[in-house]
Design goal:
The complex is a heterodimer of chains A (about 240) and B (about 250).
Chain A lengths: L1 E5 L3 H26 L5 E4 L2 E5 L3 H6 L6 H29 L2 H4 L5 H12 L14 H25 L5 H6 L3 H29 L1 H9 L1 E4 L13 H4 L4
Chain B lengths: L5 E2 L1 H30 L13 H14 L40 E4 L5 E4 L1 H5 L4 E8 L5 E10 H7 L3 H4 L3 E5 L6 E5 H4 L5 E6 L2 E2 L9 E3 L14 E5 L19
Parallel strand pairs in B: 2-11
Antiparallel strand pairs in B: 2-3, 4-5, 5-8, 6-7, 6-11, 8-9, 8-10
The chains are: A mainly alpha (about 240), B alpha+beta (about 250).
């Protein structure tokens, strides 16, 4: 016999799993657009460390000569990306879920301890409710990034009609760079996210689909009074 | 969910199975839906070469964002020094080499069906407007460039095209009809929209559309048609080269 501990509310599971394919399609259609003028690189002076993107990458993903198609999909799915993100933020605010997500005082110092733990350098994980500080920072940052993508996206989509926004974001050329960098950021987030989910194991992964995790009956846990204790076992 | 309630392994497995079942069904229908949408035949007719539902959304986007279009919203302008000396040349569709500029006249089709032929000198005699702005190509690059010509709104007023500009769209084509664009009238009448005959203070180079081209800062460069041959007005969307190839009709900035 086991107890079921609520982890992810149904709404959050929906927002999460809608966002995954939508963001994937936004990144993909963004690539189709970016290919038409792929001028970004990492480097200094004439030295290029990394060109976005190598030819082999484009060919592997069938990217070349699909600008029109890319724009069409991008401006099709932008609504879903925007609305899903907006509803998610509204939900966390109204439900109070934001309290579990927003990093508090000392979050950065604590996040450092989490990183040391995850890298196997430090044994103990700081105690927390639902999310540790590193997670809170990551899940809050990704929302700020989402807002950034929508804002820079609008600025470069209608740079004349929303000239004030475009100017605020550093002008047309710069806003395009931010929009691109944020996309790279999502891809890096995704890699870390996958690695962490793999680390945390199947039981944790299940909860983003079922919404619950299982826990032993209260009698086994001592002392019972520390009501937070069960939740500590749910981290990750 | 009561967190104190106890469940048997069987009940938990059942709950998990149901959740995963619903999840798999939704995931499978999403994937199926995506391929269904993606594999719909593109409409190559007047609706432009994208899938019908996609075109509907692009048209919807236009109805949302053309509300933002205003004669008070001007593309940012730059000082003369900011303009590049050699603007990038992109696109030569409709610029065939057999073209004879000495016999060129702009053919304007009036609402009555009459065609008025207008010479370059007549256009040049109208008040001249210059603009230095960041020209934006749909490919993603942009360049600060310097253009001179007559505001389309001034041109329309000078040739008494009031009945014509009361229509919804402006259409234009190169003399050989190889390249053609259409645009909404409010954008055409925007105070920065020029019938342009000068670049960097000199007559347009041939590869930039001599003798007369469009410069419309509130749209991507695809709408700034080079070497305009004919100009007409319509309440339906005029044919548009890139629209037919799956691009957004409005292409407004």
């Amino acid at each position: 016999m086991k107890r079921l501990i609520k982890k992810h509310p149904l709404a959050i599971r929906w927002f999460h799993w809608i966002n995954f394919p939508v963001l994937t399609l936004m990144v993909w259609s963004g690539l189709l657009i970016y290919w038409a003028n792929d001028v970004y690189r990492l480097g200094f002076g004439d030295t290029t460390l990394l060109k976005f993107f190598p030819k082999s990458f484009y060919f592997a993903l069938h990217i070349p000569f699909r600008l029109g198609e890319g724009m069409a999909w991008h401006f099709f799915f932008m609504w879903l990306f925007f609305l899903n993100g907006l509803l998610y933020v509204l939900y966390t605010v109204i439900s109070g879920e934001w309290k579990l997500l927003l990093p508090g005082r000392g979050a950065f110092a604590e996040a450092w301890l989490v990183i040391l733990h995850d890298l196997g350098i430090r044994k103990a994980l700081p105690a927390c409710v639902k999310y540790n500080s590193a997670q809170k920072i990551a899940y809050t940052a990704i929302i700020i990034m989402g807002v950034g993508s929508v804002a820079t996206g609008l600025a470069i989509y209608k740079p004349v009609q929303f000239g004030w926004l475009c100017a605020f974001l550093g002008g047309y050329t710069f806003a395009r760079i931010i929009h691109f960098v944020l996309t790279i950021g999502y891809c890096l987030f995704f890699l870390v996210h996958l690695a962490q989910v793999a680390r945390a194991g199947w039981k944790n992964f299940q909860s983003i689909i079922t919404g619950f995790e299982t826990a032993p009956p209260p009698a086994i846990i001592t002392p019972v009074e520390e009501s937070n204790k069960e939740e500590i076992t749910l981290t990750n | 969910m009561n967190e104190d309630k106890l469940y048997t392994e069987k009940q938990i497995r059942r709950k998990t199975f149901i959740s995963f079942g619903i999840f798999s069904l939704l995931a499978a229908s999403t994937i199926k839906g995506w391929f269904y949408l993606k594999n719909l035949p593109p409409d190559n007719g007047l609706r432009g070469a994208v899938q019908e539902p996609v075109r509907k959304v692009l048209d919807f986007n236009e109805t949302v964002f053309d509300k933002a279009l205003s004669n008070d919203h001007l593309a940012k302008t730059y000082p003369l020094e900011a303009a590049v000396k050699k603007p990038r040349v992109n696109g030569d569709i409709g610029l065939d080499e057999t073209f004879n500029p000495s016999t060129w006249k702009l053919a304007v089709t009036k609402a009555s069906g009459d065609i008025v032929n207008i010479t370059l000198d007549e256009i040049k005699s109208l008040p001249k407007t210059e603009i230095i702005f960041n020209f934006k190509c749909i490919e993603g690059w942009s360049q600060v460039t310097h253009w001179g010509g007559v505001k389309f709104s001034d041109f329309a007023a000078a040739f008494h095209l009031n009945n014509e500009t009361a229509m919804k769209y402006l259409g234009m084509a190169t003399p050989d009809y190889e390249y053609y664009v259409g645009m909404d009238m409010p954008s055409a009448l925007h105070p920065q929209t020029l019938l342009c005959y000068e670049m960097n203070g000199k007559p347009l180079p041939v590869n930039q559309g001599y003798p007369l081209r469009m410069i419309i800062p509130v749209k991507y460069g695809v709408k700034s048609i080079k070497r305009i041959g004919t100009l007409y007005f319509d309440n339906e969307r005029p044919a548009d080269y890139w629209f037919e190839r799956g691009y957004d009709y409005f292409s407004g900035l």
